[in-house]
Amino acid sequence: MKALDSLRIFVIVQRKGSLSAAGRSLSLSPATISRRISALEEELGVQLVDRTSRNLKVTEAGQAFLEHAEVVLEAMARAEEAARNSKQLPEGRLRIHSRMQIGLRVIGPLLPGFAQQHPDIQLELELSEHPVNLVEQDFDIDIRTGESNDSNFVIKRLLSSDEVLVASPAFMKVHKRIRHPNDLMQVRCLTYRREHEAVTWKYIDEQGVQQELPIQGVLSSNNGELLRLAAIGGMGIALLSEPTVRSGIQDGTLVRLLPEYRFAVRAFSNGVYAVFRQSRTLPLKVRAFVDFMAEALRENDGA
User: Which PROSITE patterns does this entry report, sorted A to Z (predicted)?
Assistant: First the structure.
Protein backbone atom coordinates (compact mmCIF):
# COMPACT_ATOMS: atom_id res chain seq x y z
CA MET A 1 0.00 0.00 0.00
CA LYS A 2 2.99 2.35 0.36
CA ALA A 3 3.22 2.70 -3.42
CA LEU A 4 -0.47 3.65 -3.55
CA ASP A 5 0.08 6.19 -0.78
CA SER A 6 2.85 7.77 -2.85
CA LEU A 7 0.55 7.93 -5.87
CA ARG A 8 -2.15 9.54 -3.75
CA ILE A 9 0.29 12.11 -2.38
CA PHE A 10 1.49 13.02 -5.88
CA VAL A 11 -2.08 13.43 -7.20
CA ILE A 12 -3.14 15.61 -4.25
CA VAL A 13 -0.03 17.79 -4.59
CA GLN A 14 -0.94 18.38 -8.23
CA ARG A 15 -4.55 19.24 -7.32
CA LYS A 16 -3.65 21.55 -4.44
CA GLY A 17 -0.75 23.25 -6.22
CA SER A 18 1.60 23.42 -3.24
CA LEU A 19 3.27 21.20 -0.68
CA SER A 20 1.76 23.13 2.24
CA ALA A 21 -1.81 22.88 0.90
CA ALA A 22 -1.36 19.18 0.21
CA GLY A 23 0.11 18.76 3.68
CA ARG A 24 -2.95 20.32 5.30
CA SER A 25 -5.21 18.01 3.30
CA LEU A 26 -3.22 14.90 4.23
CA SER A 27 -2.18 15.93 7.77
CA LEU A 28 1.49 15.60 6.76
CA SER A 29 4.34 18.10 6.89
CA PRO A 30 5.53 19.66 3.61
CA ALA A 31 8.94 18.11 4.25
CA THR A 32 7.42 14.63 4.47
CA ILE A 33 5.47 15.14 1.27
CA SER A 34 8.59 16.41 -0.52
CA ARG A 35 10.54 13.33 0.59
CA ARG A 36 7.80 10.99 -0.61
CA ILE A 37 7.68 12.63 -4.03
CA SER A 38 11.48 12.57 -4.29
CA ALA A 39 11.46 8.87 -3.45
CA LEU A 40 8.83 8.27 -6.11
CA GLU A 41 10.89 10.21 -8.68
CA GLU A 42 14.00 8.23 -7.76
CA GLU A 43 12.14 4.95 -8.14
CA LEU A 44 10.77 5.97 -11.55
CA GLY A 45 13.97 7.63 -12.73
CA VAL A 46 12.17 10.77 -13.94
CA GLN A 47 11.34 14.20 -12.51
CA LEU A 48 7.63 14.51 -11.82
CA VAL A 49 7.48 18.00 -10.30
CA ASP A 50 9.41 21.15 -11.22
CA ARG A 51 10.42 22.76 -7.92
CA THR A 52 12.32 25.71 -9.43
CA SER A 53 9.26 27.93 -9.92
CA ARG A 54 7.41 29.72 -7.12
CA ASN A 55 4.45 27.40 -7.56
CA LEU A 56 4.81 23.68 -8.07
CA LYS A 57 4.47 22.66 -11.67
CA VAL A 58 4.05 19.11 -12.94
CA THR A 59 6.57 18.19 -15.64
CA GLU A 60 5.64 16.60 -18.96
CA ALA A 61 6.66 13.21 -17.58
CA GLY A 62 4.70 13.96 -14.42
CA GLN A 63 1.60 14.80 -16.43
CA ALA A 64 1.79 11.51 -18.31
CA PHE A 65 2.28 9.66 -15.03
CA LEU A 66 -0.58 11.60 -13.40
CA GLU A 67 -3.16 10.39 -15.90
CA HIS A 68 -2.36 6.75 -15.17
CA ALA A 69 -2.02 7.38 -11.41
CA GLU A 70 -5.55 8.78 -11.23
CA VAL A 71 -6.89 5.70 -13.05
CA VAL A 72 -5.06 3.41 -10.62
CA LEU A 73 -6.36 5.30 -7.57
CA GLU A 74 -9.92 5.27 -8.87
CA ALA A 75 -9.70 1.53 -9.52
CA MET A 76 -8.29 0.96 -6.04
CA ALA A 77 -11.03 3.08 -4.49
CA ARG A 78 -13.64 0.96 -6.26
CA ALA A 79 -11.93 -2.22 -5.10
CA GLU A 80 -11.78 -1.00 -1.50
CA GLU A 81 -15.40 0.11 -1.62
CA ALA A 82 -16.49 -3.24 -3.05
CA ALA A 83 -14.68 -4.98 -0.20
CA ARG A 84 -16.35 -2.74 2.37
CA ASN A 85 -19.74 -3.17 0.74
CA SER A 86 -19.42 -6.94 1.03
CA LYS A 87 -19.75 -6.43 4.79
CA GLN A 88 -23.12 -4.69 4.18
CA LEU A 89 -22.36 -2.15 6.90
CA PRO A 90 -21.97 1.55 6.04
CA GLU A 91 -18.86 2.92 7.73
CA GLY A 92 -16.01 5.41 7.43
CA ARG A 93 -15.67 9.17 7.08
CA LEU A 94 -18.43 10.94 5.17
CA ARG A 95 -17.69 14.52 4.10
CA ILE A 96 -20.72 16.67 3.28
CA HIS A 97 -21.05 20.28 2.17
CA SER A 98 -24.18 22.38 2.42
CA ARG A 99 -25.30 25.97 2.13
CA MET A 100 -25.50 27.55 5.56
CA GLN A 101 -29.25 27.85 6.09
CA ILE A 102 -30.14 24.48 4.56
CA GLY A 103 -27.47 22.85 6.70
CA LEU A 104 -28.67 24.51 9.91
CA ARG A 105 -32.44 24.40 9.40
CA VAL A 106 -33.03 21.30 7.25
CA ILE A 107 -30.10 18.85 7.45
CA GLY A 108 -28.74 19.59 10.94
CA PRO A 109 -31.84 18.57 12.93
CA LEU A 110 -31.83 15.14 11.23
CA LEU A 111 -28.19 14.28 11.96
CA PRO A 112 -28.75 12.76 15.44
CA GLY A 113 -31.23 10.28 13.97
CA PHE A 114 -28.82 9.36 11.20
CA ALA A 115 -25.96 8.91 13.66
CA GLN A 116 -28.10 6.64 15.80
CA GLN A 117 -28.86 4.40 12.82
CA HIS A 118 -25.28 4.43 11.49
CA PRO A 119 -22.85 4.66 14.40
CA ASP A 120 -19.89 3.52 12.27
CA ILE A 121 -20.06 6.57 9.98
CA GLN A 122 -18.02 9.61 11.02
CA LEU A 123 -19.74 12.74 9.71
CA GLU A 124 -17.98 15.92 8.61
CA LEU A 125 -20.43 18.67 7.64
CA GLU A 126 -18.98 21.89 6.23
CA LEU A 127 -21.28 24.88 5.79
CA SER A 128 -20.53 27.78 3.45
CA GLU A 129 -22.22 30.05 0.95
CA HIS A 130 -19.75 29.18 -1.81
CA PRO A 131 -20.08 26.44 -4.44
CA VAL A 132 -17.65 23.56 -4.01
CA ASN A 133 -15.84 21.16 -6.31
CA LEU A 134 -16.62 17.68 -5.00
CA VAL A 135 -13.48 16.12 -6.46
CA GLU A 136 -10.90 18.80 -5.75
CA GLN A 137 -12.20 19.50 -2.25
CA ASP A 138 -12.77 15.83 -1.42
CA PHE A 139 -16.47 15.97 -0.52
CA ASP A 140 -18.66 12.90 -0.80
CA ILE A 141 -21.95 14.81 -1.01
CA ASP A 142 -22.99 18.39 -1.72
CA ILE A 143 -26.46 19.49 -0.57
CA ARG A 144 -27.68 22.09 -3.05
CA THR A 145 -30.78 24.13 -3.72
CA GLY A 146 -31.91 24.49 -7.32
CA GLU A 147 -31.47 22.03 -10.14
CA SER A 148 -28.12 21.22 -11.73
CA ASN A 149 -27.41 19.86 -15.20
CA ASP A 150 -23.89 18.62 -14.48
CA SER A 151 -23.75 15.17 -16.10
CA ASN A 152 -20.55 14.32 -14.23
CA PHE A 153 -22.50 13.82 -10.99
CA VAL A 154 -25.53 11.97 -9.70
CA ILE A 155 -28.28 14.36 -8.62
CA LYS A 156 -31.09 13.18 -6.32
CA ARG A 157 -33.94 15.37 -5.19
CA LEU A 158 -34.37 15.16 -1.42
CA LEU A 159 -37.20 17.63 -1.07
CA SER A 160 -39.40 19.79 -3.26
CA SER A 161 -39.71 23.33 -2.00
CA ASP A 162 -40.86 26.79 -2.96
CA GLU A 163 -39.49 30.12 -1.91
CA VAL A 164 -41.93 32.09 0.20
CA LEU A 165 -42.28 35.66 1.43
CA VAL A 166 -42.18 36.00 5.22
CA ALA A 167 -42.19 38.78 7.78
CA SER A 168 -42.90 39.15 11.48
CA PRO A 169 -46.46 39.72 12.76
CA ALA A 170 -45.33 43.09 14.16
CA PHE A 171 -44.05 44.19 10.76
CA MET A 172 -47.30 43.16 9.07
CA LYS A 173 -49.38 45.17 11.55
CA VAL A 174 -47.67 48.30 10.22
CA HIS A 175 -47.72 47.21 6.55
CA LYS A 176 -51.24 45.87 6.08
CA ARG A 177 -51.75 46.91 2.48
CA ILE A 178 -49.44 44.44 0.71
CA ARG A 179 -51.91 42.86 -1.71
CA HIS A 180 -49.81 42.53 -4.88
CA PRO A 181 -46.14 41.73 -5.62
CA ASN A 182 -45.62 45.26 -6.94
CA ASP A 183 -46.32 46.55 -3.42
CA LEU A 184 -43.02 44.94 -2.30
CA MET A 185 -41.05 47.72 -4.01
CA GLN A 186 -42.49 50.20 -1.52
CA VAL A 187 -41.59 48.39 1.72
CA ARG A 188 -38.42 47.26 3.49
CA CYS A 189 -37.08 43.98 2.13
CA LEU A 190 -34.28 41.65 3.18
CA THR A 191 -32.42 40.25 0.20
CA TYR A 192 -30.07 37.38 -0.49
CA ARG A 193 -27.18 38.73 -2.51
CA ARG A 194 -23.93 37.30 -3.86
CA GLU A 195 -21.04 39.70 -4.41
CA HIS A 196 -22.28 42.76 -6.34
CA GLU A 197 -25.12 41.25 -8.36
CA ALA A 198 -28.36 43.17 -8.77
CA VAL A 199 -31.27 41.80 -6.72
CA THR A 200 -34.51 40.87 -8.44
CA TRP A 201 -37.39 38.79 -7.16
CA LYS A 202 -39.44 36.86 -9.71
CA TYR A 203 -43.11 35.99 -9.53
CA ILE A 204 -45.82 34.43 -11.71
CA ASP A 205 -48.66 36.89 -12.35
CA GLU A 206 -52.38 36.23 -12.71
CA GLN A 207 -51.95 35.34 -16.40
CA GLY A 208 -49.18 32.83 -15.65
CA VAL A 209 -46.44 35.13 -17.01
CA GLN A 210 -43.13 35.47 -15.20
CA GLN A 211 -42.43 38.99 -13.94
CA GLU A 212 -39.39 40.52 -12.25
CA LEU A 213 -39.22 43.04 -9.41
CA PRO A 214 -36.11 45.13 -8.77
CA ILE A 215 -35.69 45.09 -5.01
CA GLN A 216 -33.70 47.60 -2.97
CA GLY A 217 -33.09 45.74 0.25
CA VAL A 218 -32.74 47.49 3.58
CA LEU A 219 -30.48 44.54 4.40
CA SER A 220 -28.57 42.36 1.95
CA SER A 221 -26.61 39.27 2.93
CA ASN A 222 -25.23 36.08 1.41
CA ASN A 223 -26.52 34.17 4.46
CA GLY A 224 -30.14 33.08 4.51
CA GLU A 225 -30.14 32.31 8.23
CA LEU A 226 -29.23 35.91 9.03
CA LEU A 227 -32.10 37.10 6.82
CA ARG A 228 -34.50 34.73 8.63
CA LEU A 229 -33.47 36.13 12.01
CA ALA A 230 -33.81 39.69 10.72
CA ALA A 231 -37.32 38.92 9.45
CA ILE A 232 -38.30 37.45 12.85
CA GLY A 233 -36.95 40.63 14.46
CA GLY A 234 -39.30 42.79 12.37
CA MET A 235 -36.69 44.31 10.08
CA GLY A 236 -38.50 43.59 6.81
CA ILE A 237 -39.77 40.99 4.32
CA ALA A 238 -37.55 38.10 3.26
CA LEU A 239 -37.87 35.61 0.39
CA LEU A 240 -36.57 32.29 1.68
CA SER A 241 -36.84 28.55 1.06
CA GLU A 242 -40.05 27.26 2.65
CA PRO A 243 -38.48 24.38 4.65
CA THR A 244 -36.14 26.83 6.39
CA VAL A 245 -39.00 29.04 7.64
CA ARG A 246 -41.68 26.38 8.15
CA SER A 247 -41.22 26.17 11.92
CA GLY A 248 -41.40 29.97 12.22
CA ILE A 249 -44.69 30.05 10.30
CA GLN A 250 -46.05 27.24 12.45
CA ASP A 251 -45.13 28.84 15.78
CA GLY A 252 -46.29 32.31 14.73
CA THR A 253 -42.94 34.11 14.76
CA LEU A 254 -43.28 34.55 10.99
CA VAL A 255 -46.23 35.26 8.70
CA ARG A 256 -46.38 34.19 5.04
CA LEU A 257 -47.32 36.92 2.55
CA LEU A 258 -49.10 36.63 -0.81
CA PRO A 259 -49.42 32.82 -0.78
CA GLU A 260 -51.49 32.94 -3.98
CA TYR A 261 -48.34 33.86 -5.97
CA ARG A 262 -45.27 31.78 -6.73
CA PHE A 263 -41.98 33.56 -6.01
CA ALA A 264 -38.33 32.82 -6.71
CA VAL A 265 -34.96 34.53 -6.40
CA ARG A 266 -33.42 32.85 -9.44
CA ALA A 267 -35.47 29.90 -10.72
CA PHE A 268 -38.87 28.37 -10.03
CA SER A 269 -37.56 24.79 -10.16
CA ASN A 270 -36.76 24.85 -6.47
CA GLY A 271 -35.78 21.95 -4.29
CA VAL A 272 -33.11 20.46 -2.07
CA TYR A 273 -30.77 18.08 -3.89
CA ALA A 274 -27.97 15.69 -2.94
CA VAL A 275 -25.14 15.75 -5.50
CA PHE A 276 -22.48 13.04 -5.47
CA ARG A 277 -19.91 11.48 -7.77
CA GLN A 278 -20.65 8.87 -10.40
CA SER A 279 -19.40 5.45 -9.35
CA ARG A 280 -19.89 1.90 -10.54
CA THR A 281 -20.20 0.89 -6.90
CA LEU A 282 -21.94 3.60 -4.89
CA PRO A 283 -20.34 3.73 -1.43
CA LEU A 284 -22.71 2.39 1.20
CA LYS A 285 -22.09 5.42 3.42
CA VAL A 286 -23.25 7.76 0.63
CA ARG A 287 -26.30 5.64 -0.15
CA ALA A 288 -27.17 5.41 3.56
CA PHE A 289 -27.04 9.20 4.04
CA VAL A 290 -28.96 10.08 0.87
CA ASP A 291 -31.69 7.48 1.49
CA PHE A 292 -32.06 8.49 5.14
CA MET A 293 -32.36 12.20 4.33
CA ALA A 294 -34.81 11.63 1.48
CA GLU A 295 -37.06 9.50 3.70
CA ALA A 296 -36.84 11.80 6.71
CA LEU A 297 -37.58 14.90 4.67
CA ARG A 298 -40.55 13.23 2.98
CA GLU A 299 -41.96 12.40 6.40
CA ASN A 300 -41.40 15.95 7.65
CA ASP A 301 -43.05 17.28 4.50
CA GLY A 302 -46.13 15.17 5.15
CA ALA A 303 -45.64 13.15 1.95
Answer: HTH_LYSR (PS50931)
Predicted TM-score (pTM) of the model is 0.67
Q: How far apart are CA 189 and CA 185, in angstroms?
A: 8
Apex CA 15: angle with CA 13 and CA 20, to 5°?
Answer: 40
> 219-264, pLDDT tens digit by residue?
999 899 999 999 999 999 999 999 999 999 999 999 999 999 999 9
Domain at 92-160+270-300: CATH architecture: 3-Layer(aba) Sandwich (3.40)
Which positions ≥6 away from 303 have C-beta within 8 Å? none
Q: Which of 271, 286, 255, 275 is nearest to 106 (CA)?
A: 271
Distance in angstroms (rounded) separating the CA atoms of residues 52 and 46? 16
CATH top-level class of 2-85? mainly alpha
Own/partner pairs for 125-128, CB < 8 Å, 24+ apart? 125/96, 125/97, 125/98, 126/95, 126/96, 126/97, 126/98, 127/97, 127/98, 127/99, 127/100, 127/103, 128/97, 128/99, 128/100
The dotted CATH code for 163-264 is 3.40.190.290
Sign of CA dihedral 22, 24, 25, 29: positive
Angle (nearest 5°) at CA 227 between 225 and 228:
65
Angle at which helices 242-251 and 224-232 cross, to 10°: 20
Query: Using CA atoms, how far apart are residues 238 and 253, in angstroms rounded to an integer?
Result: 13
